[in-house]
Fold each of these.
Amino acid sequence: MIDMGTINTPLLTRTSPDREILTTQVEQANKEIARAYWWMKATDADTAQKYKVNDKIQNALALLQRIEYITMDIVKTIEEKS
């Protein structure tokens, strides 16, 4: 689970939808997703197989990759609408 206490980005509120804050938050999320992807990717395949979690790790990797693409699309859409 992500430790929300370690994230030092300003919060986006409904009353201040600042484009730069939103872009920064999404870009930071994208970086964290990429880090999570590579941590999962580095999992030892034999160990994962031993504990019968290899399929779950592969599913997590696929999901993280899809989320990364979505966050990149969000940033692109924000830039296009600005």
Amino acid sequence: MSKEELGKKIAKAKLDLNTKLLTGESTTAARAALRELEDELKAIERAQADQKAAQEAAQRSFEEVRSNRIAENAQTLAEARAARLQSLVRPIPDMRSSAHA
């Protein structure tokens, strides 16, 4: 049963309860039926909240993995750049020691 349908049933159950109160009839069964419907609505709301929390946790996990991957790739690029720069550096001979020898 959808949340909207349940809301309509709860409204009808409340009206029935109020009618019984006004007419002096026993309200035990009406109260029990209303409580049962309200408990069902609470269960649906809890399930929806749990589902939303799970989706948010999955999204955070995905974003964390993505962020870590970006950081690792940035580190790899920095290391590759440093290695390329190091390979371009030529040792400069010490001319002073060669000239005096």
Amino acid sequence: MTEQRDRIARSMAEAAGSMCFRQAGAEWEHLRSVWRGHADAALVVIGRDVEHLRGRAEKAETAIARAESRLTVWEQRLPETVNLAPVIETIRRDLAIDGATGATDGR
């Protein structure tokens, strides 16, 4: 985390025009610590955003698994006379579900 913190602090400082990370010497350490403090604040926000996105990704994965399951059941229940292949394959492709072959077997 310290490496990430320093990368963010350096990037923020340079974007603001500060040269404190390019200068040697203890006299620049105060400015570097200020930028590291800003980086710490940014990391808190980034951490919250990552957790939020992780939750959304888990919900999306659950929804896709549920859709795949329902799609399989739906496919099995329709009569033989219904040409399912284009519909099923389109849905599978849109949901990026494995097994999308593009085949048209008349079902």
Amino acid sequence: MSGPAATLRAAPWSDLVHDPLFAMGYGEIWRDEAMALSRDWDGGECHAYGRGRSFGAFVRDYEGARVPLLRAGTVHPRCLVLLVLAERCGVLP
């Protein structure tokens, strides 16, 4: 997919991947760290963090290797494919 349709489709993923709490949750899966929820986080922050952990577990199980979230400031192409697949599998509510 290219052109305007790809731009529209990638925008929500870009927002998610650029969220530091999503990236934190994703990274913790690869470092085998326990959940680090903060009492100071609101519901949206907890949700972004949890989605990052869920996505990290999905990538680990599906891909077997860590996939970078970003490349040159945009969503890495392989990450984008895995995000769409994870959503279709119900991993990213």
